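Quick bug: Outer membrane protein assembly factor BamC output formatted oddly.
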Amino acid sequence: MQYWVKTSLACGVLLTLSGCSIFTNDAHHPRNYRANAPVKVPSTLKAPEIDPDFKMDIAQYESQEEPKGFRPPQQVLTVAQGTWIEEGDKVSRVYFDKNDGIKDLADSIWMATQGALTSNNVTAERSDKATGTIESGWFTLIKPKDGWFWEDTKSPSQQRFKFRIEQQEHKRTASLVVELIDYRSDDIPLTDLLKQQLEVRALNEVVTEYDYQYRRLLAEIRQSEGQLAIEIGSDEEGNSALVLSTAFEHVFDKVSGLLEGLSFTVDKVNVDESTIAVTYEKPEDSIWNSIWGDSIPSLPLENGKYTIKISSNKEGGSVLTWQNGNDQVLDAQAVQALQQGLLNAVRQKDVRL
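Here's what came back:
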């Protein structure tokens, strides 16, 4: 009997100790150590003596901790081709590499910065292209919230920035640094985190504009390169002909597809004689084709069969001599009209070899 009593007591003590261990011990938190204010002794009585070794300072602790900001910093958007950043950079900066088609990298960044100001209805108060610096007017990067139509909308804050372009000696890489130089707001105080966010927002505005301008440049380059340059000349026999700057081997391989896109039907290709037999039929005008942009331009040729003889010239280009269905070479007047018609057609259809 005594054995079971001892065992029960031991188990009870162990359970009690283990149960206490699951509770968090918060008894020694600093806010729990509070010294009460000393008793105020009436002036007619003598104050009690207090040993200075045991005197405690009166400390007050708030029951709620100080709020902390956990919002991450603003991120530089390297959306434009050739843009990149350095990890751990302490300033708001983005780097640009010189892409194909760009002649002057610093000038391209300058134009993008000016475009970003214009798109935000902001003017440059100071600009010095020699040093690559621009000081902007007042931005409104943080837009006011939408309210009722009778309420006046007020911008929460306005900012001014300094943009600085720095180009490396080899001129293949340049950087853009943005610095907040002025800030005004009635409600939102400027903090280090807000300053960084505003600078990066302004930087992203320029990167986005640079990307837009470079895409337009690429489209213009693609439109200009490879486009047919058709001139009037003559072949070795002195007949009026169309002259292309493109080499013979490139023209002969691709001219059939070019003609098929301009209402020609390719009947026969004779590689040995370097001739292409075609049939031309003027396209029918359709209001639906004009609406949808599928209309095919008409050429100043009569419907019928034609033979095109392709040869190379001394300049490395190609010569196209046209004959009608009666094997008669087209005269100079007909070739000139055909040249203008082909130029208009290839520009309208964006045809390239």
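Actually, after a second look the formatting is fine. The first helix runs from residue 2 to 20. Closing.
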